Every structure is written in C-alpha cells, then in structure tokens.
C-alpha cells in the first residue's frame, strides 16, 4: 500500500479518505528517556487505525501527543493539512478529537447520564447564571445537548442504566459509558486507549461491534491501542507497530502479521541492533 496515496476503498467497500492527522518525526523525552523516537505515521479519514506493541512501547504516550497532553520535543503534528501549534487538551478537543483512557476516568458518584453530558461541555456557551435561570439560550442549549446524549445512550444500548451512578456499574459497562462520553463530543477523530482491556469474551464482542458501528454509521475516524491481536486484525484497516519507542512496522493487518520485526518483538526474540 502506498503510504502517501490520497485515499482507497477497503475490501468491504468502505471509502478511506485523505490524511486527517499526520505525525512527522515525533520524538518525546522524559528527562534522559526517549519514550518516542523519531516516529512518523498518518491517520486517514474514515479508517480504523491500530497502534500496537509490547508494554512500554510508547503507545499511550503517542495518544497523549495527539490529544495535547504531551508536547513532543522534536517533530510536528499536522491536522487537516495544517501544522498544529502546541495546544492544551481542551483546545485539541475543540478541533474534534476525543478520547477514552487506559484507566477509566469517569465521575464515580455521578449518574451515567451526567457523565455523558460532560462530553458536551465544548457545546455549552451560556454562563452559570444563565444556566441557573434556565431560560432562552441556556434552555435551548441544554435541550439540544440532552437530545445528542440520548441518541448516544440509545446507540450504545445503555438506556437501562442511564440513571445509575457509575460507581455501581461493572467494569465492562463503565468502559461503554466512557465511550459514550467521548462520542457525545461528536469527534472527527476518536482515540481509544485499550478499550477492551480487562473484558471477557462477550464484552469484547460487544465493544468490537460498537467500534465498527461508530466508524460505519457516524463516519468517525478511529485510532485505537489494543493488545488483543485477534481484535486488532479483525477491526483495523491499517496498523502501526511500536517497540521501545520506535516504529518497527506499518501497513495492513496482513502486512504487519507477516513482518519479521513485529513477530520478533511479540515473541521476545533479541534484535540485532
């Protein structure tokens, strides 16, 4: 596959568009440790792009660069063809990038509905006084935000728990609520950091279905980190592989599956470097 081509059609007929996000020569250091070492890859409109690698490979650090939590010392991030200046995470969110986290980051004492409503903060323009009075613009905003959230709740089939405090939910449902909160932000690019970690087989099947549906029905571009190789190979259009902060593979699932450097990294074979 030509890495710089201007879109393609997948085997199942889905249209993959031009480059949405382009990471060029990214290097990220923490003191004397290089978490990411001169890595470049892109994410295209409409695709599901997997980022895989052993523990400590730098995958979550890469998502943190994309979402604005980390600013790389070297390299650049290009979004929709424009070089992105260093931004705060909330500014990145306003560009249309939302994420979930490896460790669930929900408000345990709040209901499912209220947690998902926090995903609409970028769409809330009225101030606290206007919201307290709840008239005019504030009322219209609240109504519109609630309608968007209710659609997400229906889509992810969590109507029955909408009034339940998140702290009472089992792990798999908490993961689904976190996905719902990210979707409530109506992202163009959705970043999923190990969305199926700790799930049983049935929960993984459900989450896989929802990820495919988000991509298909909403047209959302997705980048995900995942350790379950069966899931990665089934869901992804393209896969980038990291190992000790370096990129060691990039291509279709079949290309990556047959890449000797990737095989060695996952089997623990020593590298001749």
Describe the structure.
The protein has 273 residues and is an alpha/beta fold. The chain folds into two domains: 1-96 and 187-273, Rossmann fold (3-Layer(aba) Sandwich), CATH 3.40.50; 108-186, no CATH class. The chain is built from ten helices and twelve strands. It has helices spanning 59-66, 89-94, 112-117, 128-133, 137-155, 171-184, 201-217, 229-235, 253-257, 260-267, and strands at 8-9, 15-16, 19-30, 33-44, 48-52, 74-79, 82-83, 97-99, 189-193, 221-225, 238-243, 246-251. The strands form three sheets. The protein has a six-stranded mixed β-sheet, with helices on both faces. Strand 9, helix 7 (201-217) and strand 10 (221-225) form a beta-alpha-beta unit. Helix 5 (137-155) crosses helix 6 (171-184). The chain is globular and about 55 Å long. The two termini are 27 Å apart. Residues 269-273 have low confidence and may be disordered.
């Amino acid at each position: 596959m030509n890495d710089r081509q201007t879109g393609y059609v997948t085997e199942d007929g889905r249209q993959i568009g031009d480059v949405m996000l382009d990471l060029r020569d990214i290097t990220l250091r923490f003191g004397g440790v290089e978490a990411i070492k001169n890595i470049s890859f892109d994410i295209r409109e409409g695709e599901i792009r997997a980022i895989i690698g052993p523990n400590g490979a730098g995958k979550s650090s890469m998502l943190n660069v994309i979402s604005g939590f980390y600013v790389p010392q070297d390299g650049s991030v290009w979004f929709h063809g424009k070089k992105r200046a260093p931004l705060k995470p909330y500014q990145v969110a306003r560009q249309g990038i939302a994420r979930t986290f490896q460790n669930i980051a929900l408000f345990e004492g709040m209901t499912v509905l209220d947690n998902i409503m926090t995903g609409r903060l970028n769409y809330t323009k009225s101030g606290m006084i206007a919201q307290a009075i709840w008239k005019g613009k504030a009322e219209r905003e609240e109504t519109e935000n609630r309608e968007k959230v209710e659609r997400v709740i229906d889509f992810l089939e969590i109507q029955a728990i909408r009034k339940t405090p998140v702290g009472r939910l089992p792990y798999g449902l908490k993961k689904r609520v976190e996905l719902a909160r990210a979707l409530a932000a109506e992202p163009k690019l959705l970043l999923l950091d190990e969305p199926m970690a700790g799930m049983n087989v049935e929960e993984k099947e459900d989450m896989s279905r929802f990820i495919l549906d988000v991509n298909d029905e909403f047209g959302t571009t997705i980048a995900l980190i995942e350790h379950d190789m069966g899931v990665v190979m089934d869901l992804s259009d393209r896969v980038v592989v990291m190992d000790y902060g370096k990129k060691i593979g990039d291509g279709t699932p079949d290309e990556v599956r047959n890449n000797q450097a990737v095989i060695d990294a996952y089997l623990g074979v020593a590298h001749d470097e």
